[in-house]
Amino acid sequence: MEASPLTNCGYLLSVWAAFGFLHGGHWCVLTCLTEDKAMQKVARAHAMSYAAGIVVTALGGGYCQSGTAKRCPGGEDMSQECLWQEQDLAYQIIYVLHYIGLAWSFTHWVMDGAQLWSWGRQSALGQPLRIVASDVRLSHFRYSGILWFAVLLVSLTWMFFMPWSAGGSSGTLGSLAGVLLLEMLLVQIVACGALCLHSRLRGARKAVEGQGSDTEAARVRGGNAACVSPREKQCGA
């Protein structure tokens, strides 16, 4: 039985929804759904990047929960102020890396989820996978660049721009998580718009270049047609 867009999307969505941010298994499914060798290579690379993100998250979390943190003066488990003013440099670095790993996996998962339908449809039709609903072919470099930009934005937000605290009576992690999710989606929307605009401009430029080539060819044909006698044909030289 031939694959259908709905069936392929169902496979991808089922694995993605099963806590896909912990394993990235939907990328493994994509390697089976697409016959494009280049796309299979990209899918394997992104599946491995999930594993790397989870390893960094787990190692950093183990260190941060090992009792090495200094007590926060406000009684909270941790906060932006406590992290930068009370903890030592080693703890700060590992804490940040821990959440960068988590941000990578979760951002990847959120952005992947918004593209499952288009990837399911493209794989069913035997087409190359496209990036963020644009006409641009999916590549590891392009997609990873978008993901890293989003990770940078959300990391700077919780590190410096938006105060937060965990534990205690004034925990604000819910509000912070909502803001970070909106930032991820905003980056994806902007990336989609930028790539679509790039594709349109490139198509328009090629159309103009094609018209210029046709005009030049017509001018040359017209010049040759004007030479009607053997002597006049020398004018084309």
Class by alpha and beta content: mainly alpha
**What are the secondary-structure elements, in order, as H or E?**
HHHEHHHHEH
Mean of all residue-level pLDDT scores: 88
Seen as an oligomer or otherwise, the chain set is: single chain
Helix fraction, binned, reads over 70%
Strand order of the largest sheet: 1-2
The overall number of domains is 1
Count the E strands.
2
Strand content: under 5%
Spatial shape: elongated
Radius of gyration from the alpha-carbon trace, in angstroms: 27 Å
- Tally of individual helices: 8
Report how far the terminal alpha carbons are from each other: 63 Å
Largest sheet: 2 strands, antiparallel
Low-confidence stretches: none
Keywords: Membrane, Transmembrane, Transmembrane helix
Transmembrane segments: 12-33, 45-69, 89-111, 146-164, 176-197
Describe this structure in words.
It is a single chain. This protein is mainly α. The chain has one domain. The chain is built from 8 helices and 2 strands, in the order αααβααααβα. The chain has helices at 5-17, 25-33, 37-64, 80-86, 89-113, 116-124, 140-161, 173-225; strands at residues 78-79, 165-166. The chain has a two-stranded antiparallel sheet with strand order 1-2. Helix 2 (25-33) runs antiparallel to helix 3 (37-64) and helix 3 runs antiparallel to helix 5 (89-113). The longest helix is centred in the last third of the chain and has 53 residues, at 173-225. The protein starts with a helix and ends in a 12-residue tail after the last helix.
